[in-house]
Amino acid sequence: MLNYTIRRLIISIPVLLLISLIIFLLLNLAPGDPLANQPLTIPPEVRQKMKEALGLGAPLYVRYLLWLKQFFWVEPLHAFDWCFGTHFSVGMQRILSWQFRSPVFDVIVQRMPQTLTVVGMSYVIGVLIAVPIGIVSAYRQYSWFDQIGTFISMIGYSVPTFFTGVLLIVVFSVDLGWFPSIYNTNLKVVDWQTFLLQVRQMAMPVFVLALYNAAQISRFMRSSMLDNLQQDYVRTARAKGMGERTVLLTHVLRNSLIPVVTVIALGVPTIFGGAIITEQVFKVNGLGQLLITAIYASDVPMVQTLTFIFAVLIVVFNLVADILYGVLDPRIRYD
Amino acid sequence: MLDAKPAAKPVKTLVEVRGLKMYFPIHTGLLRAHTGDVKAVDDVSFDILEGETLGLVGESGCGKSTCGRALIRLYDITSGSVKIDGTEIGHADQTRLRKMRPTMQMVFQDPQASLNPRMTVADIISEPLSEHTTLSKTDKLKRIYELMDAVGLNRRFANRYPHEFSGGQRQRIGIARALALNPKFIVCDEPIAALDVSIQAQVVNLLEQLQDEFGLTYLFISHDLSMVRHIADRIAVMYLGKMVELGPRDPVYDSPLHPYTEALLSAVPEPDPSLEKTRERIILKGDVPSPANPPKGCNFCTRCPKVMDICRQIEPEFREAEPGRFVACHLYDQNNKTTAGATGGTEADNEHFQQGETK
């Protein structure tokens, strides 16, 4: 297993380099001017100088290699310094955002907590709802519970989050006034009162995203359970005289979770990606919102760094899913 | 003779089946209305004596496996009564059934699929022990090793997973699992169908050896007629959800009463090439009718070479035609002797043979 993991990690290096090149070329060859927002009265030669100050004067390959060096060498060194109080990265150029004029990673670290609490919580809740629904739906296939569950997951899956989000705002913020429609990032949870406020402002975005996640995962869970319920070993377990609970929870559920766990693991990178639309609707200034504003502002370093981080997470969680598969299913051996 | 052995001492009936019916409902149309039933097992009655092996044979889809499963109530049966070791379980609820499980066990057809892939051999065998007994951990392990020895599995394999074994070994695990709770009655649902011929003999011999050792009673379901001849004391033949013939092994094989049994047995190849040349096969024409829509009268009337008018009208009763031999066929109706003139001679021969066989 260790050998397999190391081999996979080594293989992922060329994969990531290729992805970084594609992202870099796509963004830098795309039309768009980072200075388009500046006043038109700026003379062309000054404009040219500003461009060079942003580093746009250098040839494409120099910019690419510089970005790679900053991403893989300078930023990790800086993080190391920050953690252990050392001074290795002093004087090194970090990746700077064009719109914020500050290091990209500092901005990301500021935005991360909002995304993780809102999107992460919605994922956790989605999974916690989806698994029991999937189990019961499969066990009582074609029952009322299953039909309603199927209907709701169809809605959750097919109705876009910008619609459910706005609908919830109209009903619960505007009409009923139960929840705030804007997420307040400055709220600090210090006591019970602020905790309740935090819960209230998280309720709607978490619900919208949890519905979407639960819809997908419950379908996976249901079909995986149905697959396993028809297996012969389930009949064996019943013939042994095991209770229905044991049959369902130890025999069927454990085997059904194998594919579902990997699907859940593969979904984790989307948490970090943030829910671009939902964050916009509820004004949660997380990573998704950061990405979309950076795109508007033609903030190339920010966009390419964020996109590349997502790519790294996807590669890593693919590996995690494969390893989980090997851990959970004794039939699968990596050596 | 094997089948003479149980007759030596007074034997009690271990399993008593009366009018067992297992219908699977068919739902069709927009509203999924109940429009009919697949009559997988339709009104079957028989007894299994303690310590004997009853071979249940028939072609694919005739309801053999369903009958075996319904017998130990892995299905909720439509109607009928099943008495195992004096206890009526035909309509018992799951809680009572679970208490009965240690008495009746099953060895399944597919040794690959019938074992949980995520459990080790030790887990598979010990699970029923934890559920039905209060053995300590060490006692349980002792029992696991005992069972693995009994079925000829190396003790070192206890912590391996089913996929690491060959088909024959997996079936041994399945048998060890079935034996764990000291059952009296085991339904063997085509236990050798998924195995190589060389392994089949091993497993069948193992089953016989275990039967002697633990005094087990088997219902041995198979479509392998020569294997059934080897292991069974009595033979039951099913066709389209009904039992057509039941009797001691040798008389059934030597002089089958029912035309279907005759046709079925004529399909067994003869190992001696000179005899094989002269073997007369009875080739049945047409297909098996759908069990959802069986023909009127006798189920076999659409393909029977000896079909009579009465067969298409009235369903034959399953009755004792000769001592110990039951058959469901109008050829053996008492008041029908004249019509059955063609087979009268063979029937007389049968009687003669039967008397010689059972002393």
How is this structure best described in words?
Helix content of chain A is 75%, strand content 0%. Chain A has 335 residues and is mainly α. By secondary structure, chain B is of the alpha/beta class. Chain B has 2 domains: 12-103 and 183-357, P-loop containing nucleotide triphosphate hydrolases (Rossmann fold); 116-181, no CATH class. Chain B has helices spanning 5-8, 64-71, 94-100, 121-132, 137-150, 167-179, 197-214, 225-231, 249-254, 259-265, 273-278, 341-357; strands at 13-28, 33-49, 53-57, 79-84, 87-88, 104-107, 185-189, 217-221, 234-239, 242-248, 319-322, 325-327. In chain B, the strands form 2 sheets. Chain B has an 8-stranded mixed beta sheet with strand order 6-7-8-3-9-10-12-11, sandwiched between helices. A 4-stranded antiparallel beta sheet of chain B has the order 2-1-4-5. In chain B, α4 crosses α5 (137-150), α5 (137-150) packs across α6 and α6 packs parallel to α7.
